[in-house]
Amino acid sequence: MSFDFIKNKKVHFIGIGGISMSALAEILLEKGFKVSGSDVKSSETTERLKVKGAKVYIGQISQNITSDIDLVVYTAAISKNNEELLKAKDLNIPLMDRAEFLGEIMKGHKYNVAVSGTHGKTTTTSMLSSITLEANLDPTILVGGNLDIIGGNVRIGNSPYFITEACEYKESFLKFFPFIGIILNIDADHLDYYKDIEEIQNAFIKFGKLIPNEGYLVCCADDRRMEKIISNVNCNVMSYGIENGDITAKNICFDKEGRAFFEVYKSDKKLFSLNLSVPGKHNILNALASISVSLILNISVDNIVDGLNNFKGTHRRFEIKGQRKGVVVIDDYAHHPTEIKATLNAATNYPHKKIICVFQPHTFSRTISLFKEFTAAFDNVDELILADIFPAREKDTGEISSAMLCEQIIKRGVKCRNIKDFNSIVQYLNNILTEGDVLLTIGAGDVFQVGELYLNQ
């Protein structure tokens, strides 16, 4: 189905407090729509939407759905037995999932940039946002984290430029309309949906085929799986990488806090030098992806350099939360073994005596499917504390636990313990942390609260 942005005036969002759903709701509010929505609990996001004019229900019950609603938008996480969903069907109200609805919004823009990949989407989208704002392109931006330069996770522009993350979960990004599609990397994840890495790669091939002939695929040449993607698309291709690609980084060095300086080359021609304000080798690749898109959009070198120099990071991406008794607290959203290793590599370059890491595994299915990889992801820490698994949309069947993961990590020689609740974790941290240490909280759930509890004692 398609969405008529003139006729449909009242839209209800099931799960309106989510990072992406709230952004879509804000876009409609800006366009003058009547917006309602529901969520299981109140949050800063739901309160902000109320201030902007949305009617927000806490709790998802059938009475929230009324016959005057023109469209109901829902997320992939919503159960098929959700009361609101069932009531909308009974009233014959049109339904659309979040990805399809975002695709409909993208149709109204010419230069849609969709940032995909297993890791780095939020940071790359944010880097590109900083550059395009510096270039005064007035883009509409949807990002999967809070970005200070746009005052949240959405910016509504009045231009043909639209920048958004494109998540591969349940192939939702196949409902988008990219003019420029970025593929940062392809790794095994979401194995509760995909059968194996080959099926994941095939989803990215389908994504690449969405790009029109005059559009561009931007992809990381250092990832061996990109060759097959490139051979299957009909559009222009610009590749990047540290080792390979059209756009490369050379003469790389790091400062004492792990931030990179490097020279950017196109083929054998040096374009400019760059100092990043965010740490880690992985952020060189994220920067190269955003630089590649910027060159396609004919953004000047000065705007690219200034945009990346001004980019200080997004919330929950190696975010320095504060300091207490000489202990620096850093929080990161990493929840996949590859992301965890990249975050820990960045942390080892940060000044520290010891790195004490608190990790909260995210979903039972991911912990099971990548169990071996998780056991090998923490070799760089001095001590690891495992919180219990954050269930997200899943139920605990007893098949996996943080205690099981802890046991195998100890066998690798890493000091590790499983502590179930956050208050007990903080009590333990008070006993082991000393001046000069780094406390690193990692995970996609609510583990960031551990760092906040420690700082706010």
UniProtKB/TrEMBL annotation:
Superkingdom, taxonomy of origin = Bacteria
- Keyword Zinc listed? The answer is no
Molecular function GO terms recorded: ATP binding; UDP-N-acetylmuramate-L-alanine ligase activity
A GO cellular component annotation in the UniProt record:
cytoplasm
Stored Pfam families: Mur_ligase, Mur_ligase_C, Mur_ligase_M
Q: Specify which residues bind ATP according to the UniProt entry for this protein.
A: G117, T118, H119, G120, K121, T122, T123
Q: List, for all copies, the residue spans of the domain called Mur ligase N-terminal catalytic.
A: 10-109
**Annotated ranges, domain Mur ligase C-terminal:** 316-445
Q: Pathway it belongs to? A: Cell wall biogenesis; peptidoglycan biosynthesis
Compartments in which it is found: Cytoplasm
EC number, as in UniProt: 6.3.2.8
Q: Which residues form the Mur ligase central domain?
A: 115-293
Instruction: List the GO biological process terms.
Output: cell division; cell wall organization; peptidoglycan biosynthetic process; regulation of cell shape
Catalysed transformations (reactions): UDP-N-acetyl-alpha-D-muramate + L-alanine + ATP = UDP-N-acetyl-alpha-D-muramoyl-L-alanine + ADP + phosphate + H(+)
Q: Which InterPro entries match?
A: Mur-like_cat_sf (IPR036565), Mur_ligase_C (IPR004101), Mur_ligase_C_dom_sf (IPR036615), Mur_ligase_cen (IPR013221), Mur_ligase_N (IPR000713), MurCDEF_pg_biosynth (IPR050061), UDP-N-AcMur_Ala_ligase_MurC (IPR005758)
Q: Which UniProt keywords apply?
A: ATP-binding, Cell cycle, Cell division, Cell shape, Cell wall biogenesis/degradation, Cytoplasm, Ligase, Nucleotide-binding, Peptidoglycan synthesis
Q: Give the UniProt family note.
A: Belongs to the MurCDEF family.
PANTHER family per the record?
A: UDP-N-ACETYLMURAMATE--L-ALANINE LIGASE, UDP-N-ACETYLMURAMATE--L-ALANINE LIGASE-RELATED
Stated role? Cell wall formation.
- The protein's name is UDP-N-acetylmuramate--L-alanine ligase
Chain's gene name: murC
